[in-house]
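Notebook entry, structure prediction.
Reason for the run: the old model in the group folder had no record of what sequence produced it. Starting over properly, with the input documented here first.
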Amino acid sequence: MVNGKFVSYLRVSTARQGASGLGLEAQREAVSRYVNGGSWALVQEVVEVESGKRSDNRPQLAKALALCRIHRATLLVAKLDRLARNVAFISTLMESSVDFVAVDLPQANKLTVHIMAAMAEYEASAISARTRAALAAARARGKKLGGLRGPAAEFAALSGKGSAAGAAVRAAKAAKRIEDLLPVMEDICAEGSASLRAIAAELNARGIGTPRPGNYKWYPVQVQRILRKIPAEALRKDPSGVPADAHAAVA
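New structure, fully documented this time:
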């Protein structure tokens, strides 16, 4: 059974997570499960939102540790496995002389955390050394580091192909949309609605959306843009098709 006073320290790594509560609720629930059923008091919940760029700057951790000292409380963290990989956090925790409990690793003590911190520091140093050695070896072989890999002309050609393909897809979709709309507009005009405003109103009444995604309602200017893209010969049809005055309206 859990007894005593606690200050819970919750941590998320981005401002977006801090604002949305993503990650915080899971930590809060873990803390609640740990103390449930005991005779305890939560002095305060402290939330740290880190950008990831300055892991050594933890003002809320300092605040939580101060609260623990003031109230003779125990620091309660939800996930030590992530925090223990941060040497700055462990150093601050060790220097504070504040007792702590990790929900995900309740058997951890100060010796355990010291070992975890030492291993994290060693691994970070080893990764850095391996990276520097690999880059030095690559430079010694004459390999160019940074920037695009491969001939510039090849990348330019690939980029051009991608742009051209995208433009072709968009053009095909636009042409297909006009092809689909033409018989509908012919039908509307055949019923006597030849003005831009009348065509727009009828398209809206029929529940036919505009080509732009999310833009449902038609306006005369949108009808005008579509009609301008339809070849003139397609507009100069017999009375059963789009009448000539519709073409005159967009001339």
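Summary: The longest helix spans residues 152-190.
The old model has been moved to the deprecated folder.
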